[in-house]
Amino acid sequence: MTEENQTPVPAPAAAAKPRSARRRAREFAVQGVYQWQLTGDGVNAIERYLKESNPAFGRADENLFRAIFYGVLKDPEALKTALVPHIDRPFEEVSPVEAAVLFAAAFEIAHMPETPYPVIVNEAIELAKTFGGTDGHRFVNGVLDKLAAQLRPVELEAVRAKRRH
C-alpha cells in the first residue's frame, strides 16, 4: 500500500475499561474490512498496514483477527447475500463502518459456532458504538438478530428458553 492510497482507518473512542485481546482482534478485523471496502487493497497489504500503524495490534488475538478478516474477504459476496434479506435498504446505502461490522459478525455467526451468537452480537454492537454513527448499533443489532435466527435457530431457542426461566 502506498502513502497516496492509505485510507485513514477510524480509531476507536477511548474505552472505560481495558479491551480484551479478542475485542482488539475484532476491532482490527473491522478496521481491515473497512479499509478493504474503501481502497480495494489486498488482505496482505491491509494486514501489514494495521500491524505497522498501530502498536496495540500486538495485544490483539492475532489468530482471531486473521480468522475473521481473511474469512470475510475470502467470500464477501456470500456474507452479503446472507445479510441483504435482513436489511431495510439497499446494501450500498449501508455506511461502510456498519457494513464492516456486519461482515465481521456475519462471518462469526456463520462460521464460528464455538462462539455463542449473543457474544458475537454484543461485540458487534460495541464495535458499532465505537466506530459508527449515533444509532448504527441499533441497526447492527436488528440485522444480526435476524441473521442469527436464520443461521442458528436451535441456539437462539435455547437462549430464549433460558431467559424465560
From TrEMBL:
Residues 23-148 form the NusB/RsmB/TIM44 domain. SUPFAM superfamilies: NusB-like. The gene is nusB. Gene3D superfamilies: NusB-like (1.10.940.10). HAMAP family: NusB. The keyword Calcium does not apply. Keywords: RNA-binding, Transcription, Transcription antitermination, Transcription regulation. Belongs to the NusB family. InterPro entries: NusB-like_sf, NusB_fam, NusB_RsmB_TIM44. Residues 1-20 are annotated as: Disordered. This is Transcription antitermination protein NusB. Involved in transcription antitermination. Required for transcription of ribosomal RNA (rRNA) genes. Binds specifically to the boxA antiterminator sequence of the ribosomal RNA (rrn) operons. The keyword Transcription regulation applies.
